[in-house]
Amino acid sequence: MECVAAIDQGTQSTRVFIFDKNAQPIASHQEQFIQIYPKAGWCEHDPMIIWGSVQRCISAALAAAEAAAGCAIKVVGLGITNQRETTVLWSRSSGQPLHNAIVWLDNRTSEICHTWEASLPGGKDHFRPVTGLPVSTYFSAYKFQWMREHVPEVAAAVESGDAMFGTVDSWLIYCLTGGADGGVHVTDVTNASRTNLMELSSLAWHGPTLQLFGAPAAIMPRIASNAEVYGTVAAGPLAGVPISGCLGDQMAALLGQRAAPGEAKNTYGTGCFMLLNTGPHITLSSHGLLTTLAHQLGPSASPSYALEGSVAVAGLGISWLRDNLRLIDSADDSEPIAASVPDSGGVYFVPAFGGLLAPHWQEDARGVLLGMTAFTTRGHVVRALLEAICFQSRDVLEAMLLDTAMHRASSMSDILQVPVQRPLFQETTALGAALAAGLTVGFYDEAFVTTPPPADKAARTFEPAVGREEADKRYAHWKKALSRCLDLADLAL
Q1: Cα separation of 345 and 353, whole Å?
Q2: Contact partners, residue 22, CB within 8 Å, separation at least 6
Q3: Nearest Cα to Cα of residue 38 among 140, 112, 108, 111
Q4: Which residues, 6+ apart, have CB-to-CB distance to 48 below 8 Å?
Q5: Half-sphere exposure of 265 (CA within 13 A, CB side)
């Protein structure tokens, strides 16, 4: 039985999915891995642990697929999707990491960003006309600069030419294709667009910006499209299989939803990410959003662009309630506990653990829990966290409406005041990577990849259950709470 496989390497876990000819999942396997927190606001991953988790998930998913199908499985293409911006530097000669990966939500580069803002002619928005991105701890260039300035092994390797730079996609493709023994050094346009080093219009590394950050062109991966063969798997159960699709996780979800130009999707994982497909048009934001790639489905294909609003804390907040406060035993507990109270009881939770991303871009913000009284229970706190995810999505949607002059189409449905469609198969990130990989090898055709299935067969629709007046009142309260979380970073000093 022929199929395609997709690696979904996320912030808190790695998953591998096996899809059939109809893009239906046959089997999958997931493995969580350790989060490393050296200091408050810092977050790292061990690249070798990530690589080990990918290898184990591939083997387990293939075994599960063969058991489910009752026959041998032949994988004709492998897709990759990954946590974006997370930055890895490794040795060209040894193939070993030079430092732990610095994760996208890490805020250790705050001072670097403040220095750039003060010194650049365009301030915080200096790079937007070229890269589409504001100055922020979020993006890879600043993480690279920190490692070059603070990790002697990285500085020496950059100077000697032994360093190789990449995001997680580059690291995985390098490892899959042989590592130090001939591994391919490549990235795709969507991941490259999150480094703050790629020019959006040319889809190439921008020389002047590389020079500003002290990043030699020789250490950078080749930029490729999202649907082409980057190399073949060198060893293991997928040996010989072409790696034929690669997208950053949120762009993969946009493709997995088959979002056409003018359509938006909102995906919830560790963070929360709303992307609007703007088609061939580069739309620069003046309301705090990011201009980025949506996809380029082939080396000669025209690129599609997107506006994005990135929220750092969604599922991460639920994990925090479980692991740090121990208010819940599992993520699944959050819904019934939140539903045990009719509302949040006046409690508002702004989960700005490492600052605020879109549309605010406030690195000095910190988490606040407001409005508690003797009446407050864990149900109110859990509900306030879940509602915070919705309020943050409305912040992004409001900015998107202003940037695009869209008409307000507007739990999530209540606060946004729009119908919300949830796909029946919710792992659209992995699906997007599988679609790109299958397109490259002819397993799926272009019409199948870009045309959504009928809505009645593909989605469940949630309608607003509260009125506009109530939704707007709660949102005004959220904005008040939001104003209380700013300029708090120095409390940890």
Answers
A1: 23
A2: none
A3: 108
A4: 96, 97
A5: 27
Q: 38: cis peptide before it, omega within 30°?
A: no
User: What does the block give as tokens for 5?
Assistant: 């496989």
Quick one: CA torsion of 228, 174, 62, 440, rounded to 10 degrees? 0
pLDDT tens by residue, the chain, 493 residues: 999 999 999 998 999 999 999 999 999 999 999 999 999 889 999 999 999 999 999 999 999 999 998 999 999 999 999 999 999 999 999 999 999 999 999 999 999 999 999 999 999 999 999 999 999 999 999 999 999 999 999 999 999 999 999 999 999 999 999 999 999 999 999 999 999 999 999 999 999 999 999 999 999 999 999 999 999 999 999 999 999 999 999 999 999 988 888 888 888 888 888 999 999 989 888 898 999 999 999 999 999 999 999 888 888 899 999 999 999 999 899 999 999 999 999 999 999 998 888 898 888 899 999 999 999 999 999 999 999 998 998 898 888 888 876 433 334 445 455 566 666 677 889 999 999 999 999 999 999 998 877 766 666 776 777 778 888 899 999 999 999 999 888 887 6
Are the C-beta atoms of 63 and 46 separated by less than 8 Å? no
φ, ψ at 354 (rounded to 5°): -130, 30
